[in-house]
Amino acid sequence: MKNSAAPIHSGWRLGWWLLCGQAALFLAACGSAPSDHAQTTNAHAPAIKLVASDDYRISPADVLEINVFQETDLKEILRVSTEGTIVFPLIGTVPVGGMTTQEAAHALQARLAQGYLINPQVSVIVQEFSKHSFTVLGEVQKPGSYDMPDQQEVNVLQAIGIAGGYTRIANPSKVILMRRVDGKQKTFQLNAKRMASGHTESIIKVLPGDVITVSQSLF
Predict the structure, then answer these.
(1) Are 80 and 87 in contact (CB under 8 A)?
(2) Three-class SS of residue 41?
(3) Is the dihedral of CA 109, 111, 112, 115 positive or negative?
(4) Do 210 and 141 share a structural domain?
(5) Tell me, what CATH number does 103's domain have?
C-alpha cells in the first residue's frame, strides 16, 4: 500500500539514514511528552505476535540460501523465478512462492525424503530480497516509500529514522502500523516512545508492504 503522492527513495542511502535518522528520532522522542494514559494503553502491545520474521512470504526474484544438514554438496543459492519456483538438485522444480522460509524448508524436506535422503534437515534463508518497500507517513520529516535493504532488517524505530525522524508536532506514543496478515489488512497501535526506552516492543521488524503512520500530538 503506497501513498501516490509519496516519493520513492533509493535504497542505497539507507545505511546513512539508519545512523543519522536514529539520532534525530531519539532526540525528538525524548523531547515529546505524550500522556501517561497513552503509555499505559500500549504497554501490553503484542510485540511477539506482530513481528515474527518467519511471517515473510517468499516472492519472485528473492535469492534463497538453502542448506541440507550434513549434505554440503546440496548447499545452493537460488533466485526464485517469476513463477515462484526454484530448481533444486535431485528433485527438480519446487514451488516456493508465497511460502514462509519454514514452509519452503518443509516442502524441500518432503521432496528429498521421497527416495533421495533419509530424514533430511533443510534450512532456507532469504539472502537477498527482491525490491520491496515500506511506507512511512504522518508526522515525519520525509514521508514516503523506501526500499527494503538487502540482508538487513529494519525495525519500526529505524524506519521512522530513515524517514528523517519526527516533526515537532509528532506523537511518538501513537504510531499506527498497517500490515497484511494472512491476506487481510490489519492495523496495530504502537508506542514508539516505549520502544526508544528499550521495551520489548523495539523488536518489531518492518515487513515489505508495511505502512507506518506517526500521529500528530493534540495540544
Answers:
(1) no
(2) helix
(3) positive
(4) yes
(5) 3.30.1950.10
What DSSP element (H or E) covers 108?
Answer: helix 101-112
Q: What is the pLDDT of residues 80-121, one digit of tens each?
A: 998 999 999 999 999 999 999 999 999 999 999 998 999 999
pTM, to two decimals:
0.51
The domain containing residue 82 runs over which residues? 63-128
Indicate whether 192 belongs to any domain.
yes
Q: Give the tens place of pLDDT for each residue, 147-179.
A: 887 657 888 999 999 999 999 999 999 999 999
Between strands 8-9 and 144-147, the pairing is parallel
Residue 2 lies in a domain: no
Backbone φ and ψ for 59, nearest 5 degrees, come out as: -120, 160
3-state secondary structure of 162: helix
Our count of domains for the chain comes to 2
196 and 157 Cβ atoms separated by less than 8 Å: yes
Mean pLDDT, residues 73-83 taken together: 93
Residue at 1 is within a domain: no
User: What does DSSP assign to residue 155?
Assistant: B
Q: Tell me if 3 is assigned to some domain.
A: no
The CA distance from 183 to 200, in Å, is 26
**Neighbour count for residue 119 (Cβ, 10 Å):** 8
Which residues is 122 bridged to in the sheet? 68
Same-domain pairing of 136 and 38: yes
